[in-house]
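Methods: example folding runs. The two proteins below were folded one after another, and each record is reproduced exactly as written to the output file, sequence line first and structure-token line second.
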Amino acid sequence: MAGISNLRNFKTCGYYKLFVVFWVIYFFRLFHDLLYENISVGPFGSFHIFGYAIGNCLIPFLLIANNGWKLNIELFKKLFFFTLLFSNVLIIIGIYIQFGGLSLSMLSDRVSITEGDGSSELVLNTILISFYGAILLLISLNEFLKRKDYVRYTIPFLLGASNLLIGAARGPLLGALLIVFFLIINNIRILNKKAIFLSYGAAFIFIGFIFSSYSYDLNIESIDRISTLFDSDQSGNNFKNEARPHEWNSSWEQFLNNPFIGDKILNDYDNYYPHNIYLEVLLSTGVLGGFFFFIPFLKSLIFNFRLQDDFLKIVFLVNVIFGITTGSLYLNVGFWVSLALIIHLFDGKNESLSSI
């Protein structure tokens, strides 16, 4: 057992060090672009970006990756769930106050929370509303399947589903669908026939809503945004109303033109980050940084699927999928925190995971 523990410590330490090397390379890119080239990212200045990258992403990653074995995982899960539940309740309260109530008509548009007095300044955007809703929905569903505790988790499940649909952000929607199927398949052995029927029935109903919305214009924004993803404009170009694919194409072309060390932190299409942290790794640091990012990242994914605890799997997978469609390397706090947890949960020291 000691040999296995030492092997795990060596492996996790090695992957952690690779990420540290990536951060060093990434900071060289940030310093060059922000201080030397005077690049700005929308309304964010260099101080904001450095502060967010160091204070919200790098430092938590370093602390958890080095000291994750000291965490009480069961306590962490409880506190995380109740914090998430409280956050979703606050979102609903904020929406209620801003719009003077709640109604089904909110499903026909993307809802965000702004400052009062008619200000358009965002307090919470549609993506984060959907993201918080998606995590709460998925964790509640997991408890449904594992514990069959329908009474305790029905309200959190419905609350999460409501915020997911109200925010109508495509990334969390698609991610939630993928993880729902994963949870059902992963737990199919312990599910009775009724639970399997209800689970797959709900999934097929949702898919039917997508096609119906596309054909009959049901005017449900969250479904419309999925069903119209690949619409073409009059000239035959795909993604007629979508900036994301153009940002991704531009980022990929910039990487191909500067494959070794990357080009810069912004894409040329709209001078913004590409809203895909994996493309952003290549765009900003090239193959050099990509090597130190993707090798430990892919290994972390493998580690994640070996976890027996679906709660932690969900938290990490949601953040991994979330990073495909939105956020930036210096903004995706959840990605770096959940990644640090996964890296260090395999060091053999945490008793709650000693059976892995």
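Second run, written to the same file directly after the first:
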Amino acid sequence: MGKSKRIMLIVLVFTGFLMYGQKNFFSKNSDVNFKIYLGSQLSKEGISVPMYRIELLDVHDSIKSINDLNIPKVLKLLDNNNYDWYINILLYHLTGKSAMIYSALEIRTKEVWLEELYEADIKYWKKTLNAILEK
């Protein structure tokens, strides 16, 4: 095999890896497994304040904070009907955003979320994630 053919083969293999070799660390909506629990948070005055939170039970080991996410990819997945619910729950999990309304409205499924909070959550996450990108 000539030198140019070897180089072309290496480029093709590398390109294939970049396009198809990366794992998708995000589950589909149908695989969301989470719980809402009552935790606490310290106020500025040092007082423990009760706060509802969401814990996603099937987060990939490599995702420990919002900084571990590919923000442009997450923004696209928020607009994808197969991933929007999972990404929403993941973001609640990673940011510690209050989930009191989830408890109050008993939001446990995508169908209820679509009716009750979809628009507000998507708008909030897009604004938050775009602010991170601008930094």
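Comment on the second run: The CA atoms of residues 13 and 19 lie 10 Å apart.
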